[in-house]
Amino acid sequence: MRTFAPGMELHKTKGIVLRTVKYGETSLIVTVYTELFGLQSYIVNGVRVSSRKGPGKANLFQPAAILDLIVYHNDLKNLQRIREFKWGVLYKNIFFDVLRNAVALFMVELLQKCIRQPEPNPELFSFIEDAFLHLDTSEGRVLANFPLFFTLHLAGFFGFRIDDTYSERTPFFDLQEGQFVADHPQHPYVLEDQLSYLTALLLRTRQPEELRELALNQETRRLLIQAYRTFYALHVPDFGEMRTLAILQTILS
Fold it and tell me: Could you tell me which of 202, 201, 177 has the C-alpha nearest to residue 189?
């Protein structure tokens, strides 16, 4: 660690790219969820320019990319700078496969809507990183069910964790309360019968490979992911719609 200016130090950290915006003619402003500092915005100069040595390096800042970074950090600044960057993980499929990329972009949008403060959370970072690594190699039912798994298990990191208390006596999943209940709620935000039971099965799934055992059809997945979006909208202020949801449902059909 070396100080370059008052309050400005160099740090090594992993980062997961969530958003990229063009800045000027050659640069980018990127939103990155970092292991060390949580959510941060960085200006990256000159990465959209090709040279004799090769094309620009803007492709490293695709949403869902996992990077190894050396960054300048100042707690008093909203926009930081990156000194060095390189691939932390070289995906085999996410950037090239339509299905996996659609799931990845859905995950990224969900993270953007939920992560709004810069506080670090190493456990959350590890969960997200591990999820993208599993997504990169998943196939078949694991891939098709992955958005459901990620959405349900992510909730616990934001204060509205769902406990699996499903039983014959508590067969309704109350989306507003975030729990399984004995009686049908007075409001419409509820899952019942098979959809409630499947939610319990997804909560019991601890590793993505276990999703292979869940034989869900397209309509069931559609109903569940719509319900889980409603669940987030009820618990995350200003959550809004998800533009990636329709694309995801079309591709996974």
Answer: 177
pLDDT for residue 4 is more than 60: no
Asked whether the beta carbons of 252 and 148 are under 8 A apart, the reply is: no
Please give the CATH topology (third level) of the domain spanning 1-90.
Answer: OB fold (Dihydrolipoamide Acetyltransferase, E2P) (2.40.50)
Residue intervals of the chain classified under CATH 2.40.50.140 are 1-90
pLDDT, tens only, 120-171: 999 999 999 999 999 999 999 999 999 999 999 999 999 999 999 999 999 9
Residue 6 is predicted with a pLDDT of: 54
Continuous segment of H or E residues that includes residue 80:
strand 79-87
The top-level CATH class assigned to 92-253 is mainly alpha
